[in-house]
Specification:
This protein is α/β, with parallel strands linked by helices. The chain contains nine helices and 17 strands. Bound molecules: alpha-L-sorbopyranose. Alpha-L-sorbopyranose binds near residues 159, 185 and 189. Keywords: Oxidoreductase.
Amino acid sequence: MTLDVGFLGYSFMGKAHANALARLPMFFPDAPEVNRSVLVGRTESAVRSAADRLGFDRVETDWADAVDDVDVLYNLGPNHVHVDPTVRALENDVHVFCEKPLAPTLDGAREMAAAAEASDAIAGVAFNYRYLPAIQLAKRLLDAGEFGRIRRFHGQYLQGWQADPDDEWTWRNDEASAGSGAVGDVGAHTIDLARFLVGDLERVSGHLETFIHERPTGDGEREPVTTDDEYSALAAFENGAMGVFEGSRVATGRKGDNTVEVYGSKGGFKFSMERLNELEVTTETTDGFDRILVTEDDHPYMDAWWPTGHIIGWEHTFVHENFEFLSAIADGGCYEPSFDAGLAAQRVVDAIERSHSQETWVSLRRRE
Ligand code: SOE
């Protein structure tokens, strides 16, 4: 089976997914074959040069001219272009892999999840951190009951790329384009990991701040910042565990501190993306934490890469998620995280925002 793939978007995420597709035949020979058929972007000259670099045959400047010609649409554009092209593709049973957060708004996410439900195609959200070998190993240990009954999840994703007021304005600072700031961008990853590892959330209490209210655009102008720079939230899980979430893009000195800690009645684990080949684990038989180097053949996905003992990197998460997503299409199976998981994360983002503005805990219990 050869799948014709179209990408909407060609910058950071376009590069990450194109790299993943190029690695698949070398390292995951069982993955279905992919033909990078069309790349979509607004500016013809830029999209053409990206197509040459990323290995696409054809370019289009309007997504409507491309979505129906492919088997799979990768929606890698800014959040505000997630909804319409995705819904149109799903209506035509074109499979969709969409970057996170699912949509800029909860309504948009609901529309996308409904389109996925009504479609015969597979719809996945690219929450790539689920596909870190260390996180997959932690999930294996959790599911095997090694940590007992889970009491606490702590997740933080601190970045400092906008710590300086002179750091450039991007679409991520604009509510109309992004929907939300740190909470929807890095917070969505933490929320998805919390759901993946511990379960659904029951209620949240959120706090958002914008510290820098305008930023330079690069052409001598300044634009207002209409999204949050930082968020934090307390959470209660349906299974009784408690959660603490934090995220920032203005945490001075932080680069990519994506950290997860889980503690249960028998043990727990610590993970940090800054040391992504390691998992620190404590169980009933350890005194404190043991450091596991997640580089063995029997660790998740590691047998596909190098001989035992060799580390891998951030970009490999995209290879793993693409392998699973494309294999689900070829096998007629399911893919997780699906659009339902994307919608669930969006409900939490929305609840954190409402909790902040209403100065109260917000329930996530469904009333239907
Ligand atoms: C910017 O904060 C960003 O690129 C996020 O959008 C990604 O999802 C994250 O993985 C890295 O940082």
